[in-house]
Each structure stands twice: as C-alpha cells, then as structure tokens.
Amino acid sequence: MRRVLWVALAVAAPASAASAAGADPFSLFGISTGKSGANISTPLQIVILLTLMTLLPAAVMSITPFLRIVVVLHFLRQALGTQSTPSNQVLLGLALFLSIVIMQPVAAEMYHQGWEPMQEGRISAQQAFEQASPPLRHFLARFAREKDVRLFVEIAHAPAPRSPEDLELRVLIPAYIISELKTGFQIGAILFLPFLVIDLVVASVTLSVGMVQLPPVMISAPFKILLFVLVDGWNLVIGSLMKSFYS
What we know:
Order of helices and strands: HEEHHHHHHHHH
Mean pLDDT: 78
Strand content: under 5%
Number of strands: 2
Helix content: over 70%
Distance between the termini: 27 Å
Number of helices: 10
Low-confidence stretches: 1-38
C-alpha cells in the first residue's frame, strides 16, 4: 500500500517545484516541514496534503492500465446486452487488480529509487520525485502515441525531445490518456462486431416470421451470452488485454 501511495503522490506532485539543488531536505511539495523555520503552519500543510490526496484516485485511474481495461470491459458489457451484469463494482474491482499486477514492477522500482532514499534522509523530497519519475515516464512513453505526444509538446510549448526519456510528465500523462482512450475504443469496436452480427441475424429472422411485438434484443441476448461462454470469453478478453501491456 505504501508503494501505491508513493506512486500516486509522485505523479500528483507538481513538476515545476523548486530545483533539487536548492531544495530543503525537510521540504515536501515546496512546503517546509522541518522545525527550522516552517513557512506554513501545520494545519495548513495538512489541508494541502489532504487536497493532494483527493487527486490520487483520478491519477491512479488515468496513468495506469486501469483506463484501457475499464473502457474495454464496459464496451464488452454493452455488447453482451446484459445492462448491469457484471455490476460496475465488479468491473472496477477487476480493472483495479489487473492494473496492480501490471504496475507492480513499476511501483516497486519507483519505491526503491525514490521513497527509500528519502525515508533514510539521504535525499530531499524533490530529489526523490526526480529519481522516481524515470520508471513511470518509461511506462507512459511505451503506450503514448507519437502523434499525441507531438500534440501536447506543441500545446505546452516544450522543447522538442531528443529521446522519450527527455519528455516531461506534463506532456506524457495527457498523451498517454488519449492514446489509451483510442486503444480502448478500438478494442471495444472489435468486440462489438460478432455480437452485432447475432443481433442482425436475430432481427432479420424475427421480422421475417412476423414477430414484431417481441424485441429482438430479448431473443439475441441468450445467444450472445451462450456464444461468449462457449468460447471462454472472459479468458480471451482478459488474456488479450494483459498481453497487450507486455508486448
């Protein structure tokens, strides 16, 4: 849990904080936390940190595989026509645990490179953030499309990077988000196709025999669920999703 919190805090920290050269070793997010001349009172520091904590769920959902997985699972549920089965809680829980499996090596590397040295007092909080950023930056750069990265480099008026390692998080994070949304929608569209064929066939049959009062969706739903179960759909979908992050 400490590793997950550290990853989220590292991402939520502003990239434009004071430089590490002049950073106070007792400073966190630019706030002096040491006994020597605290700049902000303790209650206000708590308020600021709690405010940052409220951003953690959005950060975790946006910069991890959670985004792609939950989009695909919701498309799958819509394609099956089961409405609220599985429930949102089940889909979110499945997406969360799959994301933990994928992000565990990245979180462990960030923990060892950033949190442990800061906890031992060898580096400041700003230095810890800088040392913990490369693993996350490398992960985001793997899945962010070049077109999306170029877009946000132009929007941020950032200098053209020589390599993916030179990209800033303020550019990589939004580029990664829209890249994952595009990928999730592409996978969702492919999942829809076989179920769409079943809907078309059932609708054609019901209209040809004059069953106009019975909604075709009610007839096609059992066939779609049966097809999904026969091909072991959950194994195929989840397996393909997980492999897409390791390819």
